[in-house]
Amino acid sequence: MTTPDGPAADAVAETIRLRSALDLLPVYVPGRPAPDDGAVRYKVSSNESPWGPVPAMRDAVVAAVDGLNRYPDMGAAALRAELAAEHRVAPEQIALSTGSVAVTGDLVRALVDQGDEVVFAWRSFEAYPILVGSHGGTPVAVPLTDGLEHDLPAMAAAVTDRTRLVILCTPNNPTGPALTTEQIEDFCDRVPQHVVIAIDEAYREFVEPELAPDTARIFAERGNVVLLRTFSKVHGIAGLRIGYAVAHPRLASALSQVTLPFGASSLAQAAALACLGPAARAELSERAGLIRAERARVLAGLRGQGWNVPDAQGNFVYLPLGDDSAAFAAFADERGLVVRAYGTDGVRITIAETEANDRSLEVAGEWLTR
Ligand SMILES: Cc1ncc(COP(=O)(O)O)c(C=O)c1O
User: Which fold has domain 30-47+280-368?
Assistant: First the structure.
């Protein structure tokens, strides 16, 4: 094998004209993996499911392996038909890609010309400013309220003639509170109709059922609302990468124009389809219930210890530790708990298996009495 001449190749590479926008992009920091050092450790840094695939999904993926020499069905006909039935829309209103983060990127590429603005809350999902900035858009990050919820009046006020897209994240990652139906409807009424409002519901299945916003109705009544969903959280197939949007046919068609061809792999399609079968659904719904119950236990435990924790409607809790965030993460690390620190804002801890949640409570308690 020939290798490029190091210094000469480096000199050439230095002359490549990278887009100046790259200098301004924040770096996506993934949740750290737990070190494989034999000690009992819990990785609660990425809001993953603590459980492996449900049996139907495992079987479907194993069966799909035999067809790996073929490209996937680019139209994902079977999966889109099933999702369309679930959302009571036409199959052409379902746009799939490699995770809902990719679908969000597709939305930006379908809507945003250079310098157009995308409004979202901050702190929220850290991919948003990267997706917007990397496609030449201008991210408009509107600070959360003191209660760490979306400041919807401020977000509506941030919409300008250049705004093409607003992203609402409910429940908000990483802080936890969910929006209500009334809040979203009121917000939609304040935003010009030509602006697309994407509702990122990555954690929808974990919301207490009586608090879950009726986004199906909001979507049905408005042509400019898009729902973003993922199979990475309660479905537990983050490793396969698949997510989708439910959108008006005109917008869904625009998404299909910009999306990566064959983004949804055959294994991911098979796994996602298997999740929608009756047995898998029942099992996944039970898992969501377990996470909700554990979340209530952890939340009560933390508040009992004296922590000020915002409402938690996802599979995670958030400790607004401010300047102590990194120190807490290091403290937790030493005690076998890998959490996610967000600069000097706070720390997010995923709700996982009971033992991990016990450890989270222990570590949080020890921190207060250290
Ligand atoms: C709010 C939010 N949206 C989207 C995603 C991305 O999901 P996916 O794995 O489908 O890309 C995440 C993942 O953490 C998330 O927190």
Answer: Aspartate Aminotransferase, domain 1 (3.90.1150)
